[in-house]
Design brief:
single chain, about 140 residues, mainly beta, Immunoglobulin-like, 5-stranded antiparallel sheet, 5-stranded mixed sheet, 1 helix, 10 strands, disordered N terminus, Lipoprotein, signal
């Protein structure tokens, strides 16, 4: 392998080592309710009683072996989601998925703050979740 190729591989490894997973909302809130994901801040705002599907990707691919748990299930429950493998991703950025996607359903319970811990093969993240009273 050439020194230049080795340098590029090293740079890619260093860059990806500091990467966090990308979180994208797959659903929206009903009128007057809140269901928002701020990927940069790794936080979620959710109205009580609302469910929000969130997809986890890492460097453009589905998060591998992803699991999620809530610090307080009374405030936010986290359930695994299963998306049809033929369901298209973002029509402008991804074709239909040919491998399983990493999707979780966040369900707003009691108003308050909790942390959802997301663990994957490549990286981990803590997601701050704020559940708001119903509108």
């Amino acid at each position: 392998m050439s020194p230049r190729a080795s340098l590029w591989l090293l740079a890619a490894a260093v860059f990806s080592a500091g990467c966090e997973p990308t979180l994208v909302a797959l659903t929206v809130a009903p009128p007057t309710a809140v269901a928002e994901v701020d990927n940069a801040a790794k936080d979620v705002r959710l109205s009580q009683g609302i469910a929000l599907a969130i997809e986890c990707t890492y460097v453009g691919d589905p998060c591998e072996n992803a699991t999620a748990s809530s610090s307080d299930p009374a405030i936010v429950r986290v359930l695994p989601g299963f998306v049809d493998l033929l369901a298209p991703g973002d029509a402008y950025q991804r074709p239909a998925a040919d491998e399983p996607r990493a999707v979780f359903i966040f369900v707003g319970g009691e108003p308050g703050d909790a942390i959802v811990t997301l663990t994957t093969t490549d990286t981990d993240a803590e997601i701050a979740v704020k559940v708001l009273p119903p509108p």
